[in-house]
Amino acid sequence: MSVKYGMVIDLRKCIGCDACMVACKMENGVVRGEWRTRVWERDYGDYPMVTKIKIPTLCNHCQAAPCQQVCPVQATYHAEGDVVLVDPDKCIGCGYCIAACPYGARFKDARTGIVDKCTYCYHRLAAGLVPVCVSTCVSHARIFGDLNDPESYINQYIREHKALQVAGTSTFYVLAEGLDRSLLPKDLEKEGLINLWKNIVHPAGKALMGAAAAAVVVGTAINAFKGGKRDEE
Fold first, then answer.
1. Distance between CA 66 and CA 99 in Å, rounded?
2. Where would you tag: which of 13, 93, 151, 193 has the fewest CB atoms within 10 A of its CB?
3. Which of 48, 20, 45, 233 is nearest to 143 (CA)?
């Protein structure tokens, strides 16, 4: 059976130290001002019993990823382990995938113009290691492993702690007591996003790209004409 990687985030354990964010940034050389993983702070409860909770998020490595569906050059793909990656040699930086991602997990690297995101530290997986956010977590709030192996530690953890899956993705959360599930990332609703792209965004983008191409052709012709006139003079 092939491997399918996934992650459980236990909200009862996260202390909001942000070590995962910093370690990820250092390990992957993430551009300044952007993050591959974030830890959000949310309020929950009713006054006066209001408290704060930390909610780590990352790319959820969707099973039928909208980002992959909308990419016009097939730069986004599922690699071994069902990990969603971006091929930097194919990416044209159009931003369709950024707009299509329902979790805000993608960004464009200002240094390269290429889209970046969490890769589960794919280079570490190839070396038999876990993602750096997992190994760095001091409270062991992140659990990583093979979802296709029923006896893997991650599946045992899911069963024992009744972890909830973000439907359509490879991410699970264990809720803190009294936490409303509505604070978690929403279940994937792919069809609406894909239809929006196919019927509105993509045609508009093609029209704009066509206009830009026409402008380039006209500009080139005008410059050539001017050059010819100068030669005649």
1. 10
2. 151
3. 20
Query: CA 148 to CA 6: how far, in whole Å?
Result: 9
Query: What letter represents residue 21's amino acid?
Result: M
Cis peptide before 48 (omega within 30 of 0): yes
Residue 133 has a CB neighbour count (10 Å cut-off) of 27
Structure confidence at residue 147 as a pLDDT band (50, 70, 90): very high
Report the mean per-residue pLDDT for the chain: 87
Alpha-carbon distance of 41 to 230, in angstroms, equals 65
- The residues, any chain, with a CB within 8 Å of residue 113's CB and separated by 6 or more, are 93
Q: 183-202: per-residue pLDDT in tens?
A: 899 999 855 555 555 555 55
Q: Is the pLDDT of residue 231 over 80?
A: no
Q: Which CATH class is domain 5-183?
A: alpha beta
Residue ranges per domain, the chain? 5-183, 191-232
The whole-angstrom separation of Cα 44 and Cα 174 is 16
**CA-closest candidate to residue 56, choices 102, 105, 9:** 9
Site of tokens 């893997």: 152
